[in-house]
Specification:
Elements (H helix, E strand, L loop, with lengths): L1 E3 L2 E3 L34 H14 L6 E5 L14 E4 L5 H11 L4 E7 H6 L2 H10 L4 E6 L2 E2 L5 E2 L18 H4 L5 H5 L5 E8 L3 H19 L4 E7 L3 H4 L6 H12 L3 E5 H6 L1
Parallel strand pairs: 3-4, 3-5, 5-6, 6-10, 9-10
Antiparallel strand pairs: 1-2, 7-8, 9-11
Helix pairs in contact: 1-7
The structure holds thiamine diphosphate (TPP), iron/sulfur cluster and magnesium ion.
Iron/sulfur cluster (SF4) binds next to helix 8.
Amino acid sequence: MKRVEGLTVVPTDHPPSEPARLVDDFTPSLIDVGEHHLCPGCGEPIAIRSTVEAIEELDVVQRTIAVFGIGCYTAFSNNLDVEVLQALHGRAPSLATGVKRAAPDSIVFTVQGDGDMVNEGLQEVIHAAARGERITCVMLNNGVFGETGGHLTATTVLGQRTKNTLDGRTAEDHGHPILLSDLLAQLDGAAYVARGAVNSAGNVARTKKMLTRALETQISGRGFSFVEILTMCPTGWFIETQEAPDYLADNLAAVHSIGVLKDVAAEGAG
Ligand SMILES: Cc1ncc(C[n+]2csc(CCOP(=O)(O)OP(=O)(O)O)c2C)c(N)n1
Ligand code: SF4
Ligand SMILES: [Mg+2]
């Protein structure tokens, strides 16, 4: 074992001398196959896991329909034990609208990335929110087009290094990032808007509460609900895997602030 800055690092240049031992299977029952091919340290599996855990705990599994956009997270569309529809790039909120209107008792949620939602289909989510569609949209925001190599998206923060902003994003050359949750929270049709992250155990727990609250908003028919989740993408950020949680905190979360931006039900109660 090599020691790096107080950490014991498992060597990866040769196979382990003995196989890993399964202590317990923590895979949620709605994920059929525990294994996935996303990169080590990727935040997206944690976000998907939290989403399906919330659905299970709310006891709405049998009437849940997911609509997936296109990105690394799409790998999960094949191994969830809920109905899944595949949308074209950026179009998930419109497809989800159709599903919800055709089957009003269903619980419909979308999973999209920042590239899929903010670059390739921004108008879709804005209109769905403005119409107050009773759907829940989840955006996994890593500030890059992860699946296609780590390119700049509309949410990339100033100074962030991406494949096509190697010296960092600048406002002069690439414009300013779009803070989608802040934008959606201004729309009257949006009943719940929150931004979480999965870079620490505490943030994972907070984000799960946000997902639960968003789904409850849909279940009670209050209007459009939205949860943005900041996720690590060490591969697309071109950094070491173990640096990604802190990088998220210091860069993405410093601009895309974590917290509940709008909760109409709570405001009404107060
Ligand atoms: C119309 C269209 N344009 C481009 C692509 C290529 N493409 C596939 S995944 C992807 C990136 C998606 O980025 P994001 O939604 O942020 O997801 P991430 O991979 O970062 O999780 C792109 C551009 C495509 N499949 N279809
Ligand atoms: S490229 Fe980024 S988003 Fe895609 S699987 Fe790897 S770490 Fe996750
Ligand atoms: Mg992305």
